Amino acid sequence: MAIARTVAPNTIRQPETPFSVVKTLSPxxxxxxxxxxxxxxxxxxxxxxxIRQPETPxxxxxDARGLCLCQQGEKGVVQVDFAGGxxxxxxxxxxxxxxxxxxxxxxxxxxxxxxxGLGRDSFVLASLNLAVHTFEQHPAVFxxxxxxxxxxxxxxxxxxxxxxxxxxxxxxxxxxxxxxAQMGKxxxxxxxxxxxxxxxxxxxxxxxxxxxxxxxxxxxxxxxxSANDAALFQAARAVAKKRIVVKRPRLGAFLCGEKPxxxxxxxxxxxxVYLPRAT
Length: 279
Fold this sequence. Notes:
The protein is built from eight helices and 14 strands. By secondary structure, the protein is an alpha/beta fold.
């Protein structure tokens, strides 16, 4: 899907949008995206290269409905859609009570979502009238998230929610300390590491299968936790002023094997709450 090229550290100014975007380039590599489309790419995706046919099994496609992640031979697609589907149901029918309690939303904290992904939890937090900074490292996932927020900003019903989200592209473990020094520490850092698959479990949902094909499978819980998780967890505990909230499967292992200070548990998911490191 992408070609790596060496660049110097820099920050890219994005076209003006109703929400904020900060694209911070890695000191080593960034990825040049290719997007399958027959249409001109919109301003927020002009950093990508338009192609006519997919070059990899999993690829990005842009059409009149927006940007989506596709897999050759499969009919379904993955798209960030804040106006419909599960996001609309949670916004209009209720939901997100556990995450609201976990971040203590009534105190109006500033939240940094260090594992942005498809942005669902960031959007729930923003719908609680919280200012959210969302970090995503993978260029293709960041493009999906950016396109979803761009479409949300055009919807009168949810534009105000989208405006409360600031996107950052890059490795959150590296970006958060510098950002904290620049603009102050957040009250809460939120982490949602990709769930490891349990042995003997049913096949993951199609969108997770696409995700796994794009960015790789998470490590099995029986294995040692990855250095990436450890670095992210350490950075989160160093910059958060009040708490670190980690989303886990209800019966999943603790992140990096560390027991939380307390928990909020639901039927399938729980939120582990950790306190910042003493400085």
